[in-house]
Amino acid sequence: MSSISTTTPLSDDEYAELDTLLAAPALAGRAMDVSMLEGFLTAVALSPNTIASASWLPWVWDKITGTAAPEAGEATERASALAQRHHAYMVEWLAKDPDSFEPIYECGPEWSVPAWCAGFLLGTSLDKPQWAALGVSHPQYLAPFQHLATASELDDEAAEKAMDGVTPSVIAINAAWARQRHLKQSHSGATVLRDIPKTGRNDPCHCGSGKKYKKCCADADAAAA
After folding, report:
1. Which of 12, 40, 134, 159 has the most CB atoms within 10 Å of its CB?
2. List of residues 6+ apart from 162 with CB closer than 8 A
3. SS3 at position 45
């Protein structure tokens, strides 16, 4: 992971601790594991609309309906704090050094590729209009996650191709929506750290798709503005 963040990333021991807390018998298998959680938080962090922890945290405890709340207690507070810290790190990582992104399953075989991708797709459901529009304009960005979330084998050619596509897709999605975040900051009066040049409708799209801007992200940018 990148070292540029001012938000402390979770250590290996903290990842293991969080995984154990989420697997507690009292949660009856409803909670995400760390693999699913990180994929989920990646999609949440990528979204051009800010998703508050009050909206995403219930899904950590109940990955099916997002409604079953855990009992209050020290373990719940600790798991919530770790999950929120990881979310804060993901947001900062993708904002400051997205090209260094790597999913947690690349760090060791104990983390599941299908669970990570299933979590990512679940995260997209928290901002459906934006992700649906992306799926229409850039279906290739979501294809790796859709394939791997339900993959029964990870050693065939299709799965290997999809796994090779996950990190580039995350980076491409982040780049495609960077302009929308910029426009939202400008519209709200927030401080903008850098200017993004205006793209002409017949210019190549700023997202790097190779399409003309008017055929790619123009409508989404207009909606964001």
Report:
1. 40
2. 143, 144, 147, 148, 151
3. helix
Residue 29 φ/ψ region, left for φ over 0, alpha for ψ in the -120 to 50 degree band, beta for the rest: left
Helix, strand or coil for residue 176?
helix
pTM of the complete model beyond 0.85 = no
User: What residues does 212 pair with on adjacent strands?
Assistant: 204
Q: Give SS3 for 212.
A: strand
Give pLDDT < 50 ranges for the chain.
1-5, 190-197, 224-225
| CB neighbours of residue 2 within 10 Å | 16
Residue 135 to residue 57: CA distance in whole angstroms: 25
Q: Residue 21 contacts by C-beta under 8 Å, 6 or more apart in sequence? A: 75, 78, 79, 82
